[in-house]
Write a structure and sequence with these properties.
Layout lengths: L3 E5 L9 H16 L4 H25 L2 E4 L2 E4 L2 E4 L3 E3 L10 E2 L11 E7 L4 E6 L2 H9 L2
Parallel strand pairs: 6-8
Antiparallel strand pairs: 1-2, 2-3, 3-4, 5-7, 7-8
């Protein structure tokens, strides 16, 4: 595996702590105002963590953007860097294929039109398009 030039994970595992922290806050508020329901708050924390884990896993699987020395990865789809002809001043035609297998660019992501060696234009996406472009242009 070659070095990673750019990495944008779809989600971070730290988000798994939000549910248990919410439960801890609820427990502390209950402790300050009366009798706390310890078992209930433990179950709430574990339940929120349990439903957050598949969400994080899915986002990491389908929304991770990575550029290595040889490939651009958009979700589960890879594109060899040798097939990329141009990333600057490329217009996005209507109906251009979106990398990663989706119908459109994911929400909250910007698109980067890429011209391939065969003249076809595809849409890459990232939250930081300028950094993605810089990583792709680096040869």
């Amino acid at each position: 595996m070659s070095e990673t030039r750019y990495l944008e994970p779809g989600a971070k595992w730290a988000a798994l702590l939000y549910g248990p922290l919410f439960a801890l806050l609820g427990y502390l508020v209950e402790l300050a105002t009366g009798t706390p329901h310890t078992v209930a708050w433990v179950l709430v924390g574990l339940g929120l963590a349990a439903i957050t884990a598949p969400w994080i896993h899915a986002r990491r699987r389908f929304l991770t953007v990575r550029v290595t020395g040889t490939e651009l990865w958009e979700g589960r789809e890879s594109l060899p860097l040798s097939e990329i002809a141009e990333t600057t001043d490329v217009g996005a035609p209507t109906g251009a294929r979106v990398l990663g297998g989706g119908w459109s660019t994911p929400r909250k992501y910007e698109e980067l039109p890429i011209r391939l060696n065969d003249g076809m234009v595809v849409l890459a996406w990232a939250k930081d398009v300028q950094a993605l472009r810089a990583a792709l242009d680096r040869t």
